[in-house]
Amino acid sequence: MMSDSQFPILLVEDNKHDVRFVQRAWEENSIPNLLDVVPNGQVCMQYLRKEGKYAKKHRPGIILMDIRMPVMSGIETLGHIRADPQLKKIPVIMLTTSRENSDLTKSYNLGCNSFIQKPSDYEHLIDVIQTIHHYWTLATLPPD
Fold it and tell me: What b-and-e string marks burial along 103-125, b requiring 16 or more CB atoms within 10 Å of the CB?
């Protein structure tokens, strides 16, 4: 069993620039957890269900998910996660550029743990990633 400080964190993000910014902010904050990245909700579900090339992956302790993605949106993916008894306890943070109240409402109604708007500049993103890390370092996550 992995300790809380060793569990992977899954970033579900289709924008390659945003992925690079989050990865850089991850490194700058010296976060020890592995950051795995998948490009959309469909691949996220494959990862979580340990299908195909994800068969040997550890289940993430936290999911950071964008809302607007091709193939399967973050909101649709969140619905699938919360409907699955084996996945529903995984904390999901919607990390998105969306400023739509309807996205916020849908996300919370489906059981997201937090809804955080991605900052438009890199310096603020570093702060957001650090805040997420500090919060979940102090939180007690549910067991697998």
Answer: bbebbeebebbbbeebbeeeeeb
**Angle subtended at Cα 43 by Cα 71 and Cα 118, rounded to the nearest 5 degrees:** 75
- Count the alpha carbons within 13 Å of 104 in the hemisphere toward its beta carbon: 8
CATH domain 9-136 topology? Rossmann fold (3.40.50)
Query: Starting at the edge strand that comes first in sequence, how are the strands of the sheet with 114-117 ordered?
Result: 35-38, 9-12, 62-65, 92-96, 114-117
Find where tokens 């992995």 sit: 2
The answer to whether residues 48 and 14 touch, using CB atoms and an 8 Å cutoff, is no
pTM of the model: 0.90
Give the tens place of pLDDT for each residue, 16-69: 999 999 999 999 999 999 999 999 999 999 999 999 999 999 999 999 999 999
